[in-house]
Amino acid sequence: MANFLTEWRRRWMLTCQEVNGFLEAYVDGRLDTTTKAQFERHINGCETCRTYLQQYRATIDLVKEADPANDHPPEPSDALVDETLSFLRDHYEPPTNNASS
Amino acid sequence: MPNAPSSSRVDTEAILNGDRAAFEAMVESETPRLFHIILRYVNDDEAARSLVQETFLQAYKNLDSFRGDSQLTSWVTGIGINLARSWLRKNKRQQPMDEETMERLQPDFRFGRYTGSFEPWDPEQTAERAERKELVHKALDELSDSYREVIVLRDLEERSTKETAELLGISRGAVRVRLHRARQALRSLLDPHFASDFS
User: Fold this and answer.
1) First to last CA, chain A
2) pLDDT digits (tens, 9 = 90+) for B153-177
3) How many domains does chain A have?
4) Domain Putative zinc-finger: where (chain A) (predicted)?
5) Cβ within 8 Å, pair A88-B27
6) Domain boundary residue, one of B37, B69, B91
């Protein structure tokens, strides 16, 4: 009976700590169907885990919102490419066969 | 704004044979992507521009050390990441947190349940956008580089776990663990600012 209950619990119930351990995989969409169902069953019945998941997701959203690259167009201006090429041309090693000229 | 590596304009063979025009074509196609990743590391526009230039110069000077076990563009990105790390070590304004502090920012459990309780967040109601950004940057700056860079590569660059692992030279499992711990630490640092109910 005890074994049956342990197995039943393993299949149907996750602890908050186990749910926490699956957060990264859940947010990344990597959980298999069975574990995802267990995860969501727990979340639906546990306000603490539901709130923690909301904060975890909000953290990711806030990091994306604060992305320094948001202040720059997706393609930086050609000026940066020109600047870089000009810098490189100033710093390339001179060809060794010109050393004597 | 993911920045997937693009190698469409990169003629690796010509570059390795010393074709400067081919190298410059790579500079043209890779500069935007490299600028973004370095900017995300250092969060300083001027420094990022200068580090992009230095990255390509170092790549050019060290082409003979490219072993070909990754794409040339990934190798160049690796050089950029190393330069960004060095820049951060020299210029970062605060001491990054140690492992003990990192551990304290992880949630506690007793008998499988959280020991604390959590209030829902409402960031848009509790802080203006500029303030939110400042709080997030301050929190990110507190993380040690090994955690911060996983956030940069996975959450900002939106690189896969596999790519992140390859770029950082660590296992995929280590990427996942670091990402989870880093997000949880950020959550703890931001919690006092964004909880909608302070009672």
Assistant:
1) 93
2) 999 999 999 999 999 999 999 999 9
3) 1
4) 16-50
5) yes
6) B91
Q: Give the closest of B60, B120, B183 to A51, CB-based.
A: B120
Percent of chain A with pLDDT over 70: 74
Residue B103 lies in a domain: yes
CA-nearest of B9, B109, B30, B131 to A14 is B109
Residue A8: domain span: 2-91
Largest Cα–Cα distance in chain A? 93
Q: Is B109 helix (H, G, I), strand (E, B) or coil?
A: strand
**β-pair partners for B114:** B109
Contact criterion met (CB < 8 Å) for A88 and B136: no
Tokens of B183: 């997000």
**Structure confidence by residue, pLDDT tens digits, B81-135:** 999 999 998 987 667 789 999 999 999 999 999 999 999 998 888 889 999 999 9
Amino acid in position B135: L
CB A79 within 8 A of CB B171: no
Domain count within chain B = 2
Mean per-residue pLDDT over chain B, rounded? 90
